[in-house]
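Inverse folding, one chain.
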C-alpha cells in the first residue's frame, strides 16, 4: 500500500476497490451503492454490472484484507468526525506525507516586470 492510484501513478489514492482491493483515486472509483458502501474501480464495476465479463481486474488483496482495510477506514472517519465536533485535530500515520514549503519574494511592476528584492549577503 503506497498511497498512489493503481491507474494514475501521480494521484494519491482515495479508497480501495471492494472487489479487487486495488488502490484508486477519486476519478477511478464508482460508488454504485452510494457513498455509504465501499466503491468499485471502473473495471470491477463493469464486470459487476454484467457489461463486460472479462473487465474484472485480478485480485490484489484477499477478501479478509479488503474488509479489514474498509473497517479501519470507517473507524478512522468516525474518530475524525468526533474530533472535528470537539474542535480537535487528529493526525493519523496511515501514509507518510511529504511537504515542501517554498517562499518567494518579488514584486510585479505596473508594466508587468518582475523585481526581486536585493539579497543581503553577509561578507
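Residues assigned per position:
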Amino acid at each position: 500500500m503506497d498511497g498512489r492510484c493503481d491507474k494514475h501513478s501521480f494521484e494519491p489514492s482515495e479508497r480501495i476497490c471492494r472487489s479487487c482491493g486495488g488502490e484508486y483515486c477519486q476519478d477511478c472509483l464508482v460508488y454504485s451503492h452510494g457513498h455509504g458502501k465501499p466503491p468499485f474501480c471502473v473495471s470491477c464495476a463493469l464486470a459487476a454490472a454484467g457489461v463486460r465479463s472479462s473487465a474484472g481486474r485480478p485480485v490484489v488483496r484477499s477478501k479478509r484484507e479488503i474488509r479489514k482495510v474498509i473497517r479501519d477506514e470507517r473507524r478512522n472517519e468516525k474518530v475524525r468526525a468526533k474530533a472535528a465536533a470537539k474542535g480537535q485535530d487528529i493526525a493519523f500515520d496511515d501514509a507518510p506525507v511529504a511537504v515542501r514549503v517554498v517562499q518567494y519574494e518579488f514584486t510585479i511592476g505596473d508594466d508587468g516586470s518582475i523585481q526581486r528584492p536585493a539579497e543581503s549577503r553577509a561578507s
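The beta strands are 15-16, 23-24, 29-30, 40-41, 107-108, 114-115. The CA atoms of residues 19 and 40 lie 6 Å apart.
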